Structure formats: structure tokens, C-alpha cells
Amino acid sequence: MRETLRALYNGHTDRARLFRFGLIVFDILSILFFVATSMIEDQTWIYVVDGILAVLIASDLGARLWISDDPLSQLKEVMTWIDIVVIVTLLLPTLLSNFLFLRVVRALRLLRSYRVLSDLRRDWAFFRRNEEVIQSALNLGVFLFIMTALVYVLQVNSNPNIKTYVDALYFTVTTLTTTGFGDITLQGTSGRILSVLIMIFGVALFLRLVQTIFRPSQVRFPCPDCGLQRHDADAVHCKHCGRVLNIPTEGRDF
């Protein structure tokens, strides 16, 4: 059984790749479920699905630890602890309601596995062409949801203008985009501090991620000598070996 699991998680066969793509689909569906259920009131069926997801995620985590040659090193990885936190919040949703937003951080797992990235680059031409954009869009979605959840958790019981996740999302987006309509403001000392953090750190990160999505700072062009794949769009020489490059470009916008 152990060798079979190793072949599925780390192998190069079509069966192994299909298994890993299945894990990606499961991760995407679970994340969409987390986001959707965070915006509706608790219902019995949600707790049932939570329990099923907890078992599946725990099984995946247990399998990865079991097949690892050094399980202790796996416990040092951030992604392992993210899965543990998600499992706990799924099993104890009522006791840890203020931390449910951490579930969406599991989205960071999607493209953090070298094996998954290798599969996507080999089998999906669209991913090869747009890897940087996809990575940035994923990071932007996680960042936006976490900031929204923080606003919601800190303000939902004290701010009459923030009653739902949509209200918190509206405030977060208007702040991050520097639109600042002003119809919703955060109240109290903690609210003001959070507003300052969003404006100082959040805006810079938000704009950087958006810039990467709509205008990637680097292009893919294999250097004939050293094979370096990523270069600045206007690069004349390879930064690794100095080879003169001839990267196709549409010119610079003025």
C-alpha cells in the first residue's frame, strides 16, 4: 500500500498524473465550498460536508506523512500546518468560528507542489504560457479573502454597517483600490489600526499582484546557452550567463 501511494503521489505514469489532477480538482472544489459557505448562515448539511472534507483532507495529509522518508521534515512545512488548522476548524466549526477564514489559506497549496507544477507545465500549454498570471491571481484571491475575513471578524458584532461578508468585501475592495467611498468605515481602535494596515501594506501588495496579473514583469524565453527561462521583457542579455537575447517584443508604451 505504501509503495502504491508513493507511486500515485510522486510517480510519472498517466495514472499518477490523473490522481494528482484529481487532488487539484478536490482542492479547488473545497476552497469554493469554504468561500461560498462563509457567506450563508449555518445549516445542518454544511456541518455534514465539513465532516466529510475533514476526513478526506486528513486522509491526504496522513498519506503524505506516511510515504515520506522523513515525516518530521514534513511537519516543519507551513502547508502541513495549514492542513492541520483546516481540519481542526472543520471538526470544531462552532468553537472556532472566528478562525474559519483560515480555511481559504489552503488555496496556497494548489500550486506549491513541485510535482503538481511539473505536471501542469508538461500537460497544459495554457498554464505554461500564463503561469505567473495564474500564480498571482491565486495569491490575490487568498489575500483578498483573508483581509475581508479579518474585517468581518473584527467588526461584525460592533459595526452596524458590516453585517455580512459582502459588506466586509465591499469595504476591503474599496480600500485596496484606493477608491474610498466612505460609506462604510471601521469603528473602534482595532478597526482603525486594521484600516491603517490595509492602507499601508495591503494597497502596495494588492497593486503589485494586480500589476503582475495584467502586465507580467517577466517573459518566458529560454536562453540558448544556459537555459534560463524568465527574463525582463526588455532584456538584451541573459542575467545568468550574459548571452545576447533576441526576445520578441511589441515595444515600450509611452
Features:
flat; 2 strands; two-stranded antiparallel sheet; 2% strand; 254 residues; mainly alpha
Count, helices = 9
Please list the strands of the largest sheet in the order they lie side by side: 1-2
Number of strands: 2
Instruction: Give the class from helix and strand content and strand pairing.
Output: mainly alpha
Rg: 22 Å
- Proportion of residues in extended strands: under 5%
C-alpha end-to-end distance: 61 Å
Average pLDDT number? 80
For the sheet with most strands, the description reads: 2 strands, antiparallel
Report the principal-axis shape. flat
Helix and strand element order: HHHHHHHHHEE
- Enumerate the spans where pLDDT stays under 50 for 5 or more consecutive residues: none
- Helix amount: 55-70%
Protein topology:
Blueprint: H1 2-10, H2 14-37, H3 44-67, H4 71-75, H5 78-91, H6 114-123, H7 125-155, H8 165-176, H9 188-214, E1 218-220, E2 230-232
Antiparallel strand pairs: 1-2
What does this structure look like?
There is one protein chain. Helices cover 61% and strands 2% of the residues. A two-stranded antiparallel ribbon has the order 1-2. The longest helix is centred in the middle third of the chain and has 31 residues, at 125-155. The relative contact order is 0.07. It has helices spanning 2-10, 14-37, 44-67, 71-75, 78-91, 114-123, 125-155, 165-176, 188-214; strands spanning 218-220, 230-232. The protein contains nine helices and two strands, in the order H-H-H-H-H-H-H-H-H-E-E.
